[in-house]
Amino acid sequence: MNAERLLQHYEKIADAPEAIARLRRFVLDLAVRGKLVPQDAKDEPASELLTRIEKAKARLVKAGELRKPRDLDSGGDVNKAYSIPSTWRWVRLDGVGAIVGGGTPSASDAYNFAEPGEGVPWLTPADLGGYSKLYISRGSRDLSETGARTSSATLMPKGTVLFTSRAPIGYVAIAANPISTNQGFKSIVPYVADCSRFIATAMKAFAPEIDAKAPGTTFKEVSGKVVAAVPFPLPPLAEQHRIVAKVDELMDLCERLETARAGREAVRDRLAAANLARFNAPDPETFRNDARFALDALPALTTRPDQIKDLRRTILNLAVRGKLVPQDPNDEPGSELLKLIATEIATYGEANCIGTVQTDLIADEKLPFAAPTGWEGTRLSTLFKVITDGDHQPPPKADTGVAFLTIGNITSGRLDFTGCRLVPEAYFKSLAPYRTPAKSDILYTVVGATYGRPALVETERPFCVQRHIAILKPVEAMSVRFLMTLLASPLIYDQATNSITGTAQPTIGLRPLRNFLAPLPPLAEQHRIVAKVGALMALCDRLEASLTATVATRRRLLDALLAEALAPADASLSGVSDRQTVATVSGDPEKVIFAERSAYILSLAYERHRFARRERTFGHVKAQKILHLVEAEAGFDLGRAPIRDAAGPNDFKHMLAVEQWARGHERFVFETNGAGYLLRQLSNFDKSLKTEHGPDPHTRAIATRLIDILVPMDTRQAEIFATVYSAWNNLLIEGKAPTDTEIVCAARDDWHPDKLKLPAGEFFAALAKLRLEGIVPKGTGKFVHGPYQKALFN
Q1: pLDDT tens, 53-93?
Q2: Is the CB of residue 449 less than 8 Å from the CB of residue 506?
Q3: CA 581 from centre of chain
Q4: Is the pTM above the cut of 0.85?
């Protein structure tokens, strides 16, 4: 049994989803499979224990201490769910203990019940909800002598294993004294009292499966007949005691691990909050350095999606307060822009017969922050030609016509026409033009729990909206993207929250919406803000993607370790999976997963080259470039840490690990041919494309297309192609909007001295090829580190 390795690698899986809960279930699983403690040949075998159990059962019934058990035989043999040690025996659960139900006296008669400690101890499933101890003495109320006598509740002896059979199924405890239950239990009274602890352990292990097989949907319940027929693996009594002791030890360890994890999360939360405080209360003189430090520290402090959400809010908060980009005294001030906007609004209103909107004066009110020089404080209505909403009358329905969107179609921040209603075209044409959305308008949810969410109209498709959605038509003198940033910011959302009326259905009225306080920066600064917000939101996207990939990797690693720990300790290497074999050899299952994935991609690449009769061009350098592009463009995490090398983006350590794994499993080797290294297949080459850790069909399709683009290229062309892609991606990560010349400069002049030996024209050709093939980086791939790394804030 290899369970010790699970604890060795715990730090790598501790933050996997439900890691501790799965470890607890894993311990119980090992316990009932005979894999938790070693067997001892000196133990009395379970067959002898069964003989003792039968004698004890007969003695208890004869003495009247136990009612003769009802015949709950299901008429079938015991289902041997898995293999168990030779000294164990499979039996039915009712072969080790009597299955006893419970009862409840009439609740209308208060005399049937007594205060705790004054009557007969009595339990309901609710008494075990949130109860963490193993032994229990009584519930929230007792039965009176009358209640016990007039109900079907049975007083069971100390040591009875209490198992809830409904509401919910699966709570387990042991009676610390004689006790009774209501009908929500199917308890087990052991025929041999010393078996009580192991039976309780086994019932905890079997509870999820029993619950899964229980009939019912809204109210699930399992019968005594079903519980009685549960297959039960019976170990020797001495081994039962060792198993119980080991379970207690490991459960205590899980408790400590859970406490430690909660402590780590609390520390991370405090550090993340302090980190973001550098943004939210910035010192103008140190903000750049503070921002750089905070962003550098974020990946180490971020483990949950809600922390990314807080970062996004912080970025938007800074953006609308003038703290994200420097002001330029040469910009035309917001006061002049406001005059231009007023003229545009007046012209639109006159053309569409819209009266002047009456807004509250702002003279005695100030923005909740000190506006930078050149900014103006104003109302939201002064930044839009009109702020209105959809038709207040229920629209007619139609099988064909124009789309009619409701809040559910825009709450994601994007318009989703999937499954939307349709209205007649005549109805749509009857609406005033300013009450129908057009491209570049902004929709804003004003009713319901999802209020305060903006969505930009990016389609020319005609549609209309319900009255729960506000329509904001921006003036042409403003940056629409800045207005989206403003509407998504905490500044506007907080005002929305403070203005809502109603409780069952929160509602933001149009008048309050039009009167929201809004900052107006110069137009040139709006564009700078939008660019910086875009770069920082891209960083958030990368953090989120990295977090998702990390969680997935931790989950896979946990799965691999659990599978390995369940493997027989004496299994031969040929009898276990590649993952288990290499985990034993390498000592790092996480790296094994990445090696298997990488071997898959390289095998796929070789097959594509061989099909095109280009296998002689598939060597070390090209292999590295394919791995890099697949990881970056397809988002298929291979565990690489690429650096800037003369031959482009490389990770030699990773490549060596992949080769070692592939050679050890007879997949392939790279051998020298005098001029370089070429791939040669080994006996198990075909297995590389059958690994459970391979890509999903969509990712495989992207990877195959990338490979096919590189197949016709020679080594030099592939090297330049991947380098240009990586340099371009780096610039996007840094928040740049690079020109072609800047991309080529980053890929040639700033990459590695050896790149200067290559003509710049070849780099421009590679850039054109990338665009032609639609291989355009998004700033989501890994940053390729090197001596020319730049900070996001310069």
Answers
A1: 999 988 888 877 766 665 544 444 688 888 899 999 999 99
A2: yes
A3: 29
A4: no
